[in-house]
Write a structure and sequence with these properties.
InterPro entries: Cyt_P450, Cyt_P450_CS, Cyt_P450_E_grp-I, Cyt_P450_sf, Cytochrome_P450_fam2. The protein has 490 residues and is of the alpha+beta class. The protein is 51% helix and 8% strand. The chain contains 17 helices and eleven strands. A five-stranded mixed β-sheet has the order 1-2-7-4-3. The chain has a two-stranded antiparallel ribbon with strand order 5-6. It has a two-stranded antiparallel ribbon with strand order 8-11. The longest helix has 32 residues. The termini are far apart.
Protein backbone atom coordinates (compact mmCIF):
# COMPACT_ATOMS: atom_id res chain seq x y z
CA UNK A 1 0.00 0.00 0.00
CA UNK A 2 1.25 3.47 -0.88
CA UNK A 3 2.92 5.29 2.06
CA UNK A 4 0.79 8.37 1.46
CA UNK A 5 -2.39 6.30 1.77
CA UNK A 6 -1.16 4.74 5.02
CA UNK A 7 -0.32 8.15 6.47
CA UNK A 8 -3.71 9.44 5.38
CA UNK A 9 -5.47 6.53 7.11
CA UNK A 10 -3.45 7.05 10.29
CA UNK A 11 -4.24 10.77 10.37
CA UNK A 12 -7.90 10.06 9.70
CA UNK A 13 -8.01 7.56 12.58
CA UNK A 14 -6.32 10.04 14.92
CA UNK A 15 -8.79 12.72 13.86
CA UNK A 16 -11.77 10.44 14.47
CA UNK A 17 -10.34 9.39 17.84
CA UNK A 18 -9.92 13.04 18.81
CA UNK A 19 -13.49 13.82 17.76
CA UNK A 20 -14.83 10.79 19.68
CA UNK A 21 -12.95 11.72 22.86
CA UNK A 22 -14.13 15.34 22.65
CA UNK A 23 -17.72 14.25 22.04
CA UNK A 24 -17.65 11.81 24.99
CA UNK A 25 -16.15 14.43 27.29
CA UNK A 26 -18.52 17.19 26.16
CA UNK A 27 -21.62 15.19 27.13
CA UNK A 28 -20.74 15.60 30.83
CA UNK A 29 -19.53 19.21 30.72
CA UNK A 30 -21.61 22.41 30.45
CA UNK A 31 -22.75 23.33 26.91
CA UNK A 32 -20.67 25.43 24.57
CA UNK A 33 -19.75 26.03 20.94
CA UNK A 34 -18.70 22.96 18.94
CA UNK A 35 -14.90 22.71 18.98
CA UNK A 36 -12.75 21.90 15.98
CA UNK A 37 -10.26 19.03 16.30
CA UNK A 38 -6.95 20.00 17.91
CA UNK A 39 -7.53 23.79 17.89
CA UNK A 40 -10.90 23.72 19.67
CA UNK A 41 -12.72 27.08 19.70
CA UNK A 42 -9.59 29.21 19.40
CA UNK A 43 -10.73 30.73 16.08
CA UNK A 44 -13.97 31.90 17.69
CA UNK A 45 -12.19 33.83 20.44
CA UNK A 46 -10.75 37.33 20.01
CA UNK A 47 -7.40 36.98 21.78
CA UNK A 48 -7.09 40.79 22.02
CA UNK A 49 -10.46 41.10 23.75
CA UNK A 50 -11.36 37.79 25.34
CA UNK A 51 -13.98 39.42 27.57
CA UNK A 52 -16.06 40.49 24.57
CA UNK A 53 -15.99 36.94 23.22
CA UNK A 54 -17.05 35.49 26.59
CA UNK A 55 -19.93 37.95 26.81
CA UNK A 56 -21.19 36.85 23.39
CA UNK A 57 -20.92 33.15 24.32
CA UNK A 58 -22.79 33.73 27.60
CA UNK A 59 -25.75 35.19 25.69
CA UNK A 60 -26.06 31.89 23.83
CA UNK A 61 -25.06 29.29 26.44
CA UNK A 62 -25.81 30.97 29.77
CA UNK A 63 -23.61 31.74 32.81
CA UNK A 64 -21.78 28.37 32.80
CA UNK A 65 -20.36 27.09 29.52
CA UNK A 66 -17.41 25.21 28.08
CA UNK A 67 -14.74 26.41 25.66
CA UNK A 68 -11.96 24.36 24.12
CA UNK A 69 -8.85 26.53 23.92
CA UNK A 70 -6.84 23.91 22.13
CA UNK A 71 -7.60 20.28 22.94
CA UNK A 72 -8.43 20.81 26.62
CA UNK A 73 -11.77 22.09 27.90
CA UNK A 74 -12.16 25.15 30.10
CA UNK A 75 -15.36 25.82 32.03
CA UNK A 76 -16.27 29.52 31.94
CA UNK A 77 -18.21 31.17 34.77
CA UNK A 78 -19.95 34.38 33.73
CA UNK A 79 -21.82 36.72 36.09
CA UNK A 80 -21.74 37.42 39.81
CA UNK A 81 -23.86 34.46 40.95
CA UNK A 82 -21.79 31.82 39.15
CA UNK A 83 -18.44 33.40 40.11
CA UNK A 84 -19.47 33.79 43.77
CA UNK A 85 -20.83 30.25 43.99
CA UNK A 86 -17.51 28.87 42.77
CA UNK A 87 -14.85 31.11 44.34
CA UNK A 88 -16.53 31.89 47.66
CA UNK A 89 -19.28 29.36 48.44
CA UNK A 90 -17.20 26.44 47.13
CA UNK A 91 -13.79 28.04 47.42
CA UNK A 92 -11.80 24.94 48.39
CA UNK A 93 -13.03 22.94 45.40
CA UNK A 94 -12.17 25.77 42.99
CA UNK A 95 -8.86 26.73 44.63
CA UNK A 96 -6.59 24.98 42.13
CA UNK A 97 -4.50 26.98 39.69
CA UNK A 98 -5.38 26.28 36.08
CA UNK A 99 -2.86 25.19 33.50
CA UNK A 100 -0.37 27.89 32.46
CA UNK A 101 2.25 25.94 30.48
CA UNK A 102 4.64 28.83 29.79
CA UNK A 103 5.00 29.47 33.51
CA UNK A 104 5.15 25.76 34.35
CA UNK A 105 8.07 25.44 31.93
CA UNK A 106 10.45 27.31 34.24
CA UNK A 107 8.65 27.59 37.60
CA UNK A 108 7.99 23.86 37.93
CA UNK A 109 5.05 24.38 40.29
CA UNK A 110 6.96 26.65 42.70
CA UNK A 111 6.19 30.14 44.00
CA UNK A 112 2.68 31.40 44.84
CA UNK A 113 0.79 32.42 41.72
CA UNK A 114 1.09 29.28 39.58
CA UNK A 115 1.59 26.64 42.26
CA UNK A 116 -0.82 24.11 43.75
CA UNK A 117 -1.18 21.82 46.74
CA UNK A 118 0.91 22.09 49.88
CA UNK A 119 3.59 24.25 48.25
CA UNK A 120 0.98 26.88 47.33
CA UNK A 121 -0.55 26.82 50.81
CA UNK A 122 2.83 27.19 52.54
CA UNK A 123 4.14 29.97 50.28
CA UNK A 124 0.84 31.84 50.49
CA UNK A 125 0.67 31.48 54.28
CA UNK A 126 4.24 32.71 54.70
CA UNK A 127 3.84 35.64 52.27
CA UNK A 128 0.59 36.83 53.84
CA UNK A 129 2.05 36.58 57.34
CA UNK A 130 5.20 38.44 56.36
CA UNK A 131 3.38 41.22 54.52
CA UNK A 132 0.85 41.69 57.33
CA UNK A 133 3.33 41.61 60.21
CA UNK A 134 5.97 43.75 58.59
CA UNK A 135 7.87 45.12 61.55
CA UNK A 136 11.14 44.43 59.76
CA UNK A 137 13.80 46.91 60.69
CA UNK A 138 11.12 48.59 62.83
CA UNK A 139 9.53 50.05 59.68
CA UNK A 140 6.00 49.23 58.57
CA UNK A 141 4.97 48.83 54.96
CA UNK A 142 3.08 52.13 55.19
CA UNK A 143 6.34 53.87 56.16
CA UNK A 144 7.98 52.43 53.07
CA UNK A 145 5.15 53.46 50.74
CA UNK A 146 5.09 56.99 52.21
CA UNK A 147 8.87 57.29 51.69
CA UNK A 148 8.46 56.21 48.08
CA UNK A 149 5.59 58.68 47.60
CA UNK A 150 7.93 61.49 48.66
CA UNK A 151 10.60 60.28 46.23
CA UNK A 152 7.95 60.08 43.49
CA UNK A 153 7.09 63.74 44.14
CA UNK A 154 10.71 64.75 43.62
CA UNK A 155 10.83 62.92 40.29
CA UNK A 156 7.59 64.53 39.13
CA UNK A 157 8.89 68.00 40.06
CA UNK A 158 11.84 67.40 37.72
CA UNK A 159 9.41 67.39 34.78
CA UNK A 160 9.01 71.17 35.35
CA UNK A 161 5.36 71.08 34.37
CA UNK A 162 6.19 70.02 30.81
CA UNK A 163 4.25 67.28 28.97
CA UNK A 164 5.62 63.82 29.74
CA UNK A 165 4.71 60.15 29.43
CA UNK A 166 4.33 58.99 33.06
CA UNK A 167 4.82 55.27 32.31
CA UNK A 168 8.43 54.99 33.51
CA UNK A 169 8.07 57.04 36.71
CA UNK A 170 4.83 55.30 37.70
CA UNK A 171 6.55 51.95 37.16
CA UNK A 172 9.53 52.86 39.34
CA UNK A 173 7.49 53.72 42.44
CA UNK A 174 5.70 50.37 43.04
CA UNK A 175 8.78 48.43 41.95
CA UNK A 176 10.83 50.26 44.56
CA UNK A 177 8.28 49.42 47.25
CA UNK A 178 8.68 45.72 46.44
CA UNK A 179 12.47 46.13 46.44
CA UNK A 180 12.26 47.72 49.88
CA UNK A 181 10.11 44.86 51.20
CA UNK A 182 12.18 42.04 49.70
CA UNK A 183 15.72 43.51 49.69
CA UNK A 184 15.37 46.16 52.45
CA UNK A 185 16.66 49.02 50.30
CA UNK A 186 15.09 51.18 47.61
CA UNK A 187 16.99 52.39 44.54
CA UNK A 188 17.54 55.75 42.91
CA UNK A 189 15.44 55.93 39.73
CA UNK A 190 18.62 56.30 37.65
CA UNK A 191 20.48 53.39 39.27
CA UNK A 192 21.55 51.03 36.47
CA UNK A 193 20.88 47.90 38.53
CA UNK A 194 17.37 49.17 39.16
CA UNK A 195 16.88 50.09 35.49
CA UNK A 196 17.90 46.58 34.41
CA UNK A 197 15.41 45.07 36.85
CA UNK A 198 12.65 47.42 35.65
CA UNK A 199 13.35 46.61 31.99
CA UNK A 200 13.20 42.90 32.76
CA UNK A 201 9.87 43.15 34.61
CA UNK A 202 8.29 45.49 32.03
CA UNK A 203 9.26 43.21 29.16
CA UNK A 204 7.85 40.18 30.97
CA UNK A 205 4.57 42.02 31.55
CA UNK A 206 4.22 42.89 27.86
CA UNK A 207 5.01 39.35 26.75
CA UNK A 208 2.59 37.76 29.23
CA UNK A 209 -0.21 40.05 27.98
CA UNK A 210 0.41 39.36 24.28
CA UNK A 211 -1.90 37.24 22.07
CA UNK A 212 1.11 35.03 21.28
CA UNK A 213 1.31 34.04 24.93
CA UNK A 214 -2.34 32.93 24.81
CA UNK A 215 -1.43 30.75 21.82
CA UNK A 216 1.58 29.25 23.64
CA UNK A 217 -0.49 28.42 26.71
CA UNK A 218 -3.20 26.73 24.67
CA UNK A 219 -0.77 24.84 22.41
CA UNK A 220 2.18 24.13 24.75
CA UNK A 221 3.94 21.85 22.28
CA UNK A 222 5.15 24.91 20.36
CA UNK A 223 7.07 26.20 23.40
CA UNK A 224 9.91 23.76 22.78
CA UNK A 225 9.97 23.88 18.99
CA UNK A 226 9.09 27.35 17.68
CA UNK A 227 10.87 30.69 18.07
CA UNK A 228 8.98 33.56 19.66
CA UNK A 229 8.74 35.93 22.60
CA UNK A 230 8.24 33.01 25.01
CA UNK A 231 11.96 32.29 24.66
CA UNK A 232 12.77 35.85 25.72
CA UNK A 233 10.51 35.33 28.73
CA UNK A 234 12.53 32.27 29.76
CA UNK A 235 15.79 34.25 29.46
CA UNK A 236 14.37 37.08 31.55
CA UNK A 237 13.37 34.71 34.33
CA UNK A 238 16.87 33.23 34.32
CA UNK A 239 18.22 36.75 34.85
CA UNK A 240 15.75 37.34 37.68
CA UNK A 241 16.67 34.02 39.27
CA UNK A 242 20.39 34.85 39.40
CA UNK A 243 19.66 38.39 40.61
CA UNK A 244 17.52 37.17 43.53
CA UNK A 245 20.01 34.45 44.50
CA UNK A 246 22.85 37.00 44.63
CA UNK A 247 20.79 39.05 47.11
CA UNK A 248 20.11 35.94 49.21
CA UNK A 249 23.82 35.11 49.45
CA UNK A 250 24.61 38.60 50.76
CA UNK A 251 21.81 38.36 53.31
CA UNK A 252 23.07 35.01 54.60
CA UNK A 253 26.40 36.62 55.51
CA UNK A 254 24.76 39.20 57.81
CA UNK A 255 21.60 37.44 58.97
CA UNK A 256 20.40 38.12 62.52
CA UNK A 257 17.52 35.75 63.27
CA UNK A 258 16.34 38.01 66.10
CA UNK A 259 16.11 41.07 63.87
CA UNK A 260 14.86 40.24 60.35
CA UNK A 261 15.30 43.19 58.01
CA UNK A 262 13.16 42.16 55.06
CA UNK A 263 11.38 39.36 53.22
CA UNK A 264 14.64 37.54 52.45
CA UNK A 265 15.65 37.38 56.12
CA UNK A 266 12.22 36.01 57.07
CA UNK A 267 12.50 33.36 54.36
CA UNK A 268 16.00 32.35 55.46
CA UNK A 269 14.76 31.98 59.05
CA UNK A 270 11.97 29.65 57.84
CA UNK A 271 14.57 27.67 55.86
CA UNK A 272 16.64 27.17 58.99
CA UNK A 273 13.63 26.11 61.05
CA UNK A 274 12.57 23.38 58.63
CA UNK A 275 16.00 22.19 57.46
CA UNK A 276 15.40 18.71 58.94
CA UNK A 277 11.98 18.36 57.29
CA UNK A 278 12.26 15.83 54.42
CA UNK A 279 9.33 17.54 52.63
CA UNK A 280 10.62 21.06 53.08
CA UNK A 281 9.06 23.81 50.99
CA UNK A 282 11.44 26.62 51.94
CA UNK A 283 14.27 26.26 49.43
CA UNK A 284 16.41 28.70 47.45
CA UNK A 285 14.52 27.90 44.28
CA UNK A 286 11.15 28.43 45.94
CA UNK A 287 12.33 31.78 47.25
CA UNK A 288 13.30 32.88 43.73
CA UNK A 289 9.88 32.14 42.29
CA UNK A 290 7.99 33.51 45.30
CA UNK A 291 9.97 36.75 45.04
CA UNK A 292 9.42 36.91 41.26
CA UNK A 293 5.69 36.46 41.81
CA UNK A 294 5.66 39.36 44.27
CA UNK A 295 7.58 41.52 41.78
CA UNK A 296 5.28 40.63 38.90
CA UNK A 297 2.06 41.07 40.91
CA UNK A 298 3.27 44.11 42.84
CA UNK A 299 4.92 46.08 40.05
CA UNK A 300 3.22 45.69 36.69
CA UNK A 301 -0.40 45.58 37.89
CA UNK A 302 -0.03 48.50 40.31
CA UNK A 303 1.90 50.69 37.85
CA UNK A 304 -0.68 49.97 35.11
CA UNK A 305 -3.50 50.92 37.51
CA UNK A 306 -1.70 54.15 38.49
CA UNK A 307 -1.15 55.02 34.82
CA UNK A 308 -4.81 54.35 34.04
CA UNK A 309 -5.85 56.36 37.13
CA UNK A 310 -4.10 59.53 35.98
CA UNK A 311 -5.57 59.14 32.48
CA UNK A 312 -9.09 58.93 33.93
CA UNK A 313 -8.44 61.91 36.22
CA UNK A 314 -7.29 63.91 33.19
CA UNK A 315 -10.38 62.85 31.29
CA UNK A 316 -12.68 63.88 34.16
CA UNK A 317 -11.28 67.13 35.66
CA UNK A 318 -14.44 67.71 37.74
CA UNK A 319 -13.73 64.42 39.55
CA UNK A 320 -10.12 65.45 40.13
CA UNK A 321 -11.22 68.79 41.55
CA UNK A 322 -13.58 67.11 44.05
CA UNK A 323 -10.82 64.74 45.21
CA UNK A 324 -8.43 67.68 45.70
CA UNK A 325 -11.11 69.53 47.65
CA UNK A 326 -11.46 66.53 49.97
CA UNK A 327 -7.67 66.28 50.34
CA UNK A 328 -7.51 69.97 51.35
CA UNK A 329 -10.29 69.48 53.90
CA UNK A 330 -9.01 66.24 55.52
CA UNK A 331 -5.22 66.29 55.05
CA UNK A 332 -4.25 69.82 54.08
CA UNK A 333 -1.02 70.71 52.32
CA UNK A 334 1.53 70.38 55.11
CA UNK A 335 1.62 66.69 56.04
CA UNK A 336 1.85 63.44 54.11
CA UNK A 337 -1.33 61.41 53.54
CA UNK A 338 -1.68 58.27 55.67
CA UNK A 339 -4.01 55.29 55.49
CA UNK A 340 -6.00 56.52 58.49
CA UNK A 341 -7.20 59.42 56.30
CA UNK A 342 -9.03 57.11 53.93
CA UNK A 343 -12.01 56.51 56.24
CA UNK A 344 -12.62 60.28 56.34
CA UNK A 345 -12.48 60.64 52.54
CA UNK A 346 -15.56 58.89 51.11
CA UNK A 347 -15.41 60.58 47.70
CA UNK A 348 -11.73 59.76 47.17
CA UNK A 349 -12.41 56.17 48.29
CA UNK A 350 -15.27 55.95 45.79
CA UNK A 351 -13.04 57.31 42.99
CA UNK A 352 -10.33 54.72 43.69
CA UNK A 353 -12.90 51.92 43.68
CA UNK A 354 -14.47 53.21 40.49
CA UNK A 355 -11.08 53.40 38.77
CA UNK A 356 -10.42 49.73 39.52
CA UNK A 357 -13.94 48.72 38.55
CA UNK A 358 -13.91 50.69 35.31
CA UNK A 359 -10.49 49.64 34.02
CA UNK A 360 -11.16 45.94 34.72
CA UNK A 361 -7.43 45.20 34.92
CA UNK A 362 -7.59 41.37 34.76
CA UNK A 363 -10.72 40.70 32.67
CA UNK A 364 -10.64 36.90 32.88
CA UNK A 365 -8.68 36.55 36.12
CA UNK A 366 -5.91 33.96 36.32
CA UNK A 367 -7.13 30.45 35.45
CA UNK A 368 -8.47 28.32 38.30
CA UNK A 369 -9.00 24.56 38.33
CA UNK A 370 -11.13 22.20 40.38
CA UNK A 371 -9.28 20.16 43.00
CA UNK A 372 -11.58 17.13 42.76
CA UNK A 373 -14.41 15.73 40.63
CA UNK A 374 -17.41 17.94 41.37
CA UNK A 375 -21.03 18.45 40.44
CA UNK A 376 -21.71 22.11 39.69
CA UNK A 377 -25.19 23.22 38.64
CA UNK A 378 -26.03 19.71 37.42
CA UNK A 379 -22.84 19.44 35.37
CA UNK A 380 -19.94 17.08 36.12
CA UNK A 381 -16.56 18.80 36.13
CA UNK A 382 -13.58 16.41 36.36
CA UNK A 383 -10.67 17.08 38.71
CA UNK A 384 -8.04 19.32 37.13
CA UNK A 385 -10.41 21.00 34.64
CA UNK A 386 -9.46 24.62 33.99
CA UNK A 387 -12.02 27.18 35.16
CA UNK A 388 -12.14 30.72 33.75
CA UNK A 389 -13.92 33.29 35.92
CA UNK A 390 -14.98 36.46 34.11
CA UNK A 391 -14.24 39.38 36.43
CA UNK A 392 -15.58 41.71 33.73
CA UNK A 393 -19.03 40.19 34.08
CA UNK A 394 -19.03 41.10 37.78
CA UNK A 395 -17.31 44.50 37.71
CA UNK A 396 -19.46 45.63 34.78
CA UNK A 397 -22.75 44.15 35.95
CA UNK A 398 -25.40 46.65 34.83
CA UNK A 399 -27.78 45.91 37.71
CA UNK A 400 -25.21 46.58 40.42
CA UNK A 401 -23.53 49.41 38.48
CA UNK A 402 -26.00 51.31 36.26
CA UNK A 403 -24.31 52.28 32.97
CA UNK A 404 -21.18 50.27 33.79
CA UNK A 405 -19.36 51.52 30.68
CA UNK A 406 -19.46 55.05 32.16
CA UNK A 407 -16.80 56.21 34.66
CA UNK A 408 -18.89 57.35 37.63
CA UNK A 409 -17.69 57.46 41.29
CA UNK A 410 -21.38 57.54 42.21
CA UNK A 411 -21.37 53.77 41.74
CA UNK A 412 -19.76 53.64 45.22
CA UNK A 413 -21.65 56.45 46.97
CA UNK A 414 -25.06 56.44 48.67
CA UNK A 415 -27.57 59.30 48.44
CA UNK A 416 -25.91 61.05 51.40
CA UNK A 417 -22.46 60.97 49.80
CA UNK A 418 -21.14 58.23 52.09
CA UNK A 419 -18.97 55.46 50.71
CA UNK A 420 -21.01 52.41 49.71
CA UNK A 421 -19.42 48.96 49.65
CA UNK A 422 -20.30 46.43 46.97
CA UNK A 423 -19.89 42.65 46.97
CA UNK A 424 -19.37 42.96 43.21
CA UNK A 425 -16.06 44.80 43.70
CA UNK A 426 -13.59 41.96 43.08
CA UNK A 427 -10.69 43.38 40.99
CA UNK A 428 -8.30 41.25 43.09
CA UNK A 429 -10.43 38.11 42.54
CA UNK A 430 -12.11 36.42 45.53
CA UNK A 431 -11.97 33.35 47.75
CA UNK A 432 -8.93 31.18 48.41
CA UNK A 433 -6.93 32.62 45.50
CA UNK A 434 -7.55 36.30 46.17
CA UNK A 435 -4.42 38.35 45.43
CA UNK A 436 -1.83 38.10 48.22
CA UNK A 437 -0.81 41.72 47.64
CA UNK A 438 -4.31 43.23 47.75
CA UNK A 439 -3.64 45.21 50.93
CA UNK A 440 -0.34 46.56 49.61
CA UNK A 441 -1.84 47.49 46.22
CA UNK A 442 -4.78 49.35 47.82
CA UNK A 443 -2.36 51.20 50.10
CA UNK A 444 -0.12 52.24 47.21
CA UNK A 445 -3.01 53.46 45.07
CA UNK A 446 -4.36 55.62 47.89
CA UNK A 447 -1.04 57.04 49.11
CA UNK A 448 0.53 57.63 45.69
CA UNK A 449 -2.53 59.25 44.11
CA UNK A 450 -3.46 61.43 47.08
CA UNK A 451 0.17 62.58 47.41
CA UNK A 452 0.27 63.50 43.70
CA UNK A 453 -3.05 65.37 43.83
CA UNK A 454 -2.04 67.10 47.07
CA UNK A 455 0.97 68.65 45.33
CA UNK A 456 0.11 69.00 41.64
CA UNK A 457 -2.62 70.06 39.31
CA UNK A 458 -2.97 67.65 36.41
CA UNK A 459 -3.12 69.14 32.93
CA UNK A 460 -3.59 67.46 29.57
CA UNK A 461 -1.79 68.91 26.51
CA UNK A 462 -4.93 68.01 24.52
CA UNK A 463 -8.58 68.72 25.25
CA UNK A 464 -9.76 66.18 27.90
CA UNK A 465 -12.73 65.41 25.65
CA UNK A 466 -10.31 64.06 23.04
CA UNK A 467 -8.57 61.65 25.44
CA UNK A 468 -9.29 58.01 24.67
CA UNK A 469 -9.53 55.73 27.71
CA UNK A 470 -10.20 52.53 25.74
CA UNK A 471 -7.57 49.86 26.51
CA UNK A 472 -5.19 49.12 23.64
CA UNK A 473 -5.14 45.46 24.66
CA UNK A 474 -7.72 43.56 26.63
CA UNK A 475 -6.43 39.98 26.77
CA UNK A 476 -4.60 38.97 29.94
CA UNK A 477 -4.31 42.57 31.22
CA UNK A 478 -6.17 45.73 30.20
CA UNK A 479 -3.45 48.12 29.03
CA UNK A 480 -4.22 51.86 28.79
CA UNK A 481 -3.26 53.87 25.69
CA UNK A 482 -0.16 56.07 25.89
CA UNK A 483 -0.75 59.72 26.74
CA UNK A 484 1.04 62.91 27.83
CA UNK A 485 0.43 64.70 31.12
CA UNK A 486 1.69 67.88 32.79
CA UNK A 487 2.28 67.95 36.54
CA UNK A 488 1.80 71.60 37.55
CA UNK A 489 3.06 72.29 41.12
CA UNK A 490 0.78 74.28 43.43
Amino acid sequence: MDLGVVLGLVLSCLLLLSLWRQSSQRRKLPPGPTPLPIIGNILQVDLKNISKSLKNFSKVYGPVFTLYLGRRPAVVLYGYEAVKEALIDRGEEFSGRGSFPVSEKFKKGLGIVFSNGNNWKEMRRFSLKTLRNFGMGKRSIEDRVQEEARCLLEELRKTNGLPCDPTFILGCAPCNVICSIIFQNRFDYKDQEFLNLMENLNENGKIMSSPWMQVCNNFPAIIDYLPGSHNKLLKNFTFLKHYCLSKVKKHEESLDINNPRDFIDCFLIEMEQEKHNPKKEFTYENFVFTASDLFAAGTETTSTTLRYSLLLLLKHPHVTAKVQEEIDHVIGRHRSPCMQDRSSMPYTDAVLHEIQRYIDLLPTNLPHSVTCDIKFRNYLIPKGTTVITSLTSVLHDNKEFPNPEIFDPGHFLDKSGNFKKSDYFIPFSAGKRICVGEGLARMELFLFLTTILQNFNLKSPVDPKDLDTTPVANGFVSVPPTYQICFIPF
